[in-house]
Amino acid sequence: MRTRILLCAAIVLFLGGALHAGDWKPLNNNLWSDPDNWSTGLLPVPGERTTINDPPECHLDIETLIGNLQISDGGALMIADGGILTAYGWVHVGKNNEGSLTVTNGGVLNAMGVMIIGRNTGSEGHLTTGYGGTVNIQGNFQVTNKEGSSGFVHLDGGILNIDAPLLFNPF
Fold first, then answer.
1. Average pLDDT along the chain
2. Residue 134: inside a domain, yes or no?
3. Which of 39, 45, 29 is nearest to 78 (CA)?
4. Tag placement on the chain: N or C end, fewer CB within 10 Å?
């Protein structure tokens, strides 16, 4: 029995480390839907961690499902014009440095897990809901996570639905 448990744990750890879609490295344009813009040459899929750590801003132009999302190190994501992103894991905007996420003009973000704006010490995260954009948060929602982090939520005509605990850390 113990051997089976250890074997299952090893498989989960192995697969957990392997499920990474790669990093945002735009070559042709700023469109999420172009596989050449991802370091692996493949679009992110459910269960994978997606990382946007570099400019220019990524434009989500399709409906897609992913596991985790990290936006940091000057990275930015714009969800608009019918783009829909559903993240079943965590969403960190400004995890290690500055990151921004804008949902506007018919775009939709469905954050099903923990969403943190301003994750680590020295980081700065920005979430903007612009006119016609909708952000739905089902998991915990934190604005700043650690002392020395900064998180900003800009409500600019969009809709922010929070069906979860809301935490503003007062560091």
1. 87
2. yes
3. 29
4. N
